[in-house]
Amino acid sequence: MGGLGIAGAVVTYAGTTAVAGVDLDVAVGEVVALLGPSGCGKSSLLRAVAGLEPLAAGRVAWDGADLADVPVHRRGFGLMFQDGQLFTHRDVAGNVAYGLEMARVPAAERRDLVDELLELVGLAGYQRRPVATLSGGEQQRVALARSLAPRPRLLLLDEPLSALDRALRERLASDLHDILRRAGTTSLYVTHDHDEAFTVADRVAVMRAGELVQVGTPAALWAAPADSDVAAFLGYRVVRVGGGGRLGLGPQALQVVGVVAASSHTPGPPGSNDDGDLTGRVTAVGFSRGRTTVTVDLPDWGEQRAVAAGVAAIETGDLVRLRLDPAGLVDL
């Protein structure tokens, strides 16, 4: 298969194993995200693919050709990091054109490519802007255009949006999805944010303690996490159910359907009520993205978040009735 092939990759630092025998393929034109918490080995694996870290064992190949003896600058890979690492003494066009200059691309062709790339990343007309005058999001767009300019056969992105605020990260993640596909660039994208990974990538590879624990499309991972730890990392709240099993509650799995009078109901174990609903005591009330949310203390499950859309006048201390939405649940 063409593209990137990683087989049995091991990376060690002073006797500590950071990457423990990872196998992963990235097809030409595909965007794959390496997802996991800090210290799980995802950036070490990315650096090994780039040639910045040696492999203690295993193989990194492109189109089947082993890259073990190929130096970083001859691999044909592009790199984009968290801070962008722009050249402050160059304007926007000068930054984007840097790799083209190193490749001795003729000036007229460079100008055309810079104009094309700035339009691609949403910065048409920014050529003469000093990079210090740009916002954080604009600077990352310039860094992306610079990374794409030499037309790398593989683009490696290491937490490129993590320094930005949440709203900007969400907007740029969506833009990155579109830009990478319009450019047709094969990409390996490192992030600790599952929403970002799900937005940008065609497939997501979940890492834990140096190992690859699950690979799949965002929809497949969300529908069937490999285990409780993966489920919790993806945003499920894992609770114990009868018989020793575990259940993953998605962000909207618990829904408040009414407030009950304290004299008519007392909290009981989840699912124990005659009508099949749950009851619990509200310990906090909030508001998020246009919806009222509550924290409810449920016997056996402890405090859990619930959505209270359509139920007005909920207060801390209220006893509420909740319903489980089957579409938001996974068995673990």
TrEMBL record:
<feature type="domain" description="ABC transporter">
    <location>
        <begin position="4"/>
        <end position="234"/>
    </location>
</feature>
<dbReference type="InterPro" id="IPR027417">
    <property type="entry name" value="P-loop_NTPase"/>
</dbReference>
<keyword id="KW-0408">Iron</keyword>
<keyword id="KW-0813">Transport</keyword>
<dbReference type="InterPro" id="IPR003593">
    <property type="entry name" value="AAA+_ATPase"/>
</dbReference>
<dbReference type="InterPro" id="IPR017871">
    <property type="entry name" value="ABC_transporter-like_CS"/>
</dbReference>
<protein>
    <submittedName>
        <fullName>ABC transporter ATP-binding protein</fullName>
    </submittedName>
</protein>
<dbReference type="GO" id="GO:0005524">
    <property type="term" value="F:ATP binding"/>
</dbReference>
<keyword id="KW-0472">Membrane</keyword>
<keyword id="KW-0406">Ion transport</keyword>
<dbReference type="InterPro" id="IPR003439">
    <property type="entry name" value="ABC_transporter-like_ATP-bd"/>
</dbReference>
<dbReference type="InterPro" id="IPR050093">
    <property type="entry name" value="ABC_SmlMolc_Importer"/>
</dbReference>
<dbReference type="Pfam" id="PF00005">
    <property type="entry name" value="ABC_tran"/>
</dbReference>
<dbReference type="InterPro" id="IPR015853">
    <property type="entry name" value="ABC_transpr_FbpC"/>
</dbReference>
<keyword id="KW-1003">Cell membrane</keyword>
<keyword id="KW-0067">ATP-binding</keyword>
<keyword id="KW-0547">Nucleotide-binding</keyword>
<keyword id="KW-0410">Iron transport</keyword>
